[in-house]
Amino acid sequence: MGIVVDNISKQFGSFKAVDRVSLEIKSGSLVALLGPSGSGKSTLLRLIAGLEMPDSGRILLTGKDATYQSVQERNIGFVFQHYALFKHLTVRQNIAFGLEIRKAPAKKIKGRVEQLLELVQLTGLGDRYPSQLSGGQRQRVALARSLAVEPDVLLLDEPFGALDAKVRKDLRAWLRRLHDEVHVTTVFVTHDQEEAMEVSDEVVVMNKGCVEQVGTPAEIYDNPATAFVMSFIGPVNVLPNTAKIFQGSGFEAAHPQVFLRPQDVIVEKYAEGATAPARVSRLIHLGWEIQLELTLDDGQVVTANLTRDRFNELQLEPQQRVFVRPKDAKSFPLYYSI
Ligand code: ATP
């Protein structure tokens, strides 16, 4: 079984860091807590870990009420952004640490450490000290150390946050593969939507201490529940429903604000049906995509992303006249303010 967060709240002074959050995390899944800085992700993770006590609500771990259990009583592995490995211990000794504390038999420890070294792809580096490892390798040791005691739940707080972009990207893919092998219920905190989408089975989008939406990466991208989720998961044009681009498209009748993703802006060279004239005011090559800044005749600026193939087909140049229409757009009632 996994984790149940039942109506949990936590205040610091008068500030509601986590506000009546309910959540079910399935056994064996990999779930991301995603949200901007200060949205309560770390506090929620620390509540699950037992590092913070809630003001109200319950936490169930593998079916048992763990709300008032200490960290030690919960069988949890924890990795932080800056996980201080024991500097005076080798990689092998670091990984063995939890098992030594639990007084596991020496033979079992030895076998388990070798198995974990292989799992985190550090075979051959077992005798090194943390100072002789790269940042990415250190975080892999930290993960191996937390997995050594076979936790029911693994909690990761921005585990790759301190690493450079390339290493971070490699480790994401690695974490996904690792999880596919060990299947331990894992919750990890990130403010990076790409990281959350790439790694997890389900994403919990948090904002101001509340959960805005829980869903698979595809669900939160294709069917965002709120304007906040729509804007947070990838770039989006926020336009009034009166903008010329919506004329004749059916979107103008909805709520006053309409959300249109750059890749959902259809750009044509010639007027066809209900399209709005615009001018290419800026053209940015992003490599695999081309970003256009389009100025409509009503002065509205709309960003459009074209694939390289489509761009080559259109052969666009700056200042060129084009015709645009929305492929897909969403509007939300105004009370979902962002
Ligand atoms: P970040 O990505 O910046 O870590 P977060 O979403 O993880 O943000 P939290 O760390 O959970 O957010 O913090 C939520 C809010 O609660 C923040 O405004 C923070 O300042 C506040 N907060 C967290 N811990 C404490 C504390 N021990 N005492 C007072 N305020 C706190």
Per CATH, the class of the largest domain reads Alpha Beta
Task: Let me know the average pLDDT.
Answer: 89
| Approximate strand percentage | 25-35%
Distinct small molecules: adenosine-5'-triphosphate
> What is the CATH homologous superfamily assignment of the largest domain?
P-loop containing nucleotide triphosphate hydrolases
Give a count of the beta strands, DSSP E runs of length 2 or more.
18
Structural class given helices, strands, pairing?
alpha+beta
The third-level CATH topology of the largest domain is: Rossmann fold
Reading the helices and strands in chain order gives EEEHEEEHHHEHEHEEHHEEEEEEHEE
Write the layout of secondary structure elements.
Elements (H helix, E strand, L loop, with lengths): L2 E10 L2 E11 L4 E5 L6 H9 L6 E6 L2 E2 L10 E4 L11 H11 L4 H14 L15 H14 L4 E5 L7 H18 L2 E6 L2 H7 L2 E6 L2 E6 L1 H6 L4 H6 L4 E4 L16 E4 L4 E4 L7 E10 L3 E8 L4 E7 H7 L6 E6 L3 E2 L7
Parallel strand pairs: 3-8, 3-9, 6-7, 7-8
Antiparallel strand pairs: 1-2, 1-4, 4-5, 9-10, 11-12, 12-18, 13-17, 14-15, 14-17, 15-16
The chain binds adenosine-5'-triphosphate.
The site of adenosine-5'-triphosphate (ATP) has 12 residues, from β2 and α1.
